[in-house]
Amino acid sequence: MMISKINSYANNCLKMTATPKMKTLKKWGLVTIRKAWLSLIRIKVMINNRQCPACGKTSSQRVFTQKYQWVELCNNCGLGRTLPALEPTNQAERHVKIYSQENYIVNYLTNYAPYLEHSFQRGLDRIKKHKPISSRLFDIGSGFGFFLNMANADGFVVEGIEITPCLAEEGNRRYNLKIITGDILDIELVYGKYDIVTAWDVLEHISDVDRFLRKIVHLVKQDGLFLIRVPDFSFMQNNLPREFVSSYITGVYPLGLHEHLYHFSQKSIQQFLLRSGFKIIEQWESQNDEYTPKDTSNYFDLLKMMGNYKLSCEINFLCRLSHSS
Description:
Blueprint: H1 2-14, H2 23-48, E1 60-66, E2 69-74, E3 80-83, H3 88-99, H4 104-127, E4 136-140, H5 146-153, E5 157-162, H6 165-175, E6 179-181, E7 194-200, H7 209-219, E8 220-231, H8 242-251, E9 262-263, H9 266-275, E10 278-285, H10 299-309, E11 314-321
Parallel strand pairs: 4-5, 4-7, 5-6, 7-8
Antiparallel strand pairs: 1-2, 2-3, 3-9, 8-11, 10-11
């Protein structure tokens, strides 16, 4: 919203110079006005966002810029934040728009599912070490139910929630699931109902991380489990070669400034989880067969270099409530 207001203001100002002789000046003026306003906004944004939401420190640096947004990296815990951030309402609207595209499901099944099913199965296998397969499992951000269908096939009693209506409807139709439509932060659910709650690649989309995790604390039973996976942004503190980082982000790593509000390091996500009342019982990195290539031209070279640098695109946590046995 903030960026659109800038562009609207700039364009309105330049309408006053609409004569043919003023075309060059008009173009120069548009660029100048946008640059000036963006500079002011960046100052305002940093004043309002100095304190890191994970650790509370104020020392940070800009590490990646894309068009009008950038990632601000906390120098202490490694949490990255996309700035300027969209308002929560606009973020939800953008999410629905992206995942409502006509070819989304076909693209997911063709390009993502072959990799994600490895990640999902490894998560289910770890859950089964702690819970019987008849347990009630609730998935947040279910999409059209690919993971829930796998969990259901394993014997779990499954439900889910998805913010994009057409995806929830497709999951219920395609796999005969129970996926409700709504925002997990706003919808009323039965507390203490579920043995397991899962959130695969969801937290980076959430504007209020602490509020989201408090909601999970209430949803899961006292002896229940919470499984969460997020992209691992820890590499930004490793002083890696700039050329590799650029290739890594372009080819494999899911940075997604257009939809990801946060970029979690292992340290920062641990701080969020622990202060919300969780204790981590297992932690594991995703494996090479779970990474969807964005650029296939150098995919295997990137995987090899990731191995050399000991990098993983995603980090997974299996948690219990801290006061449970």
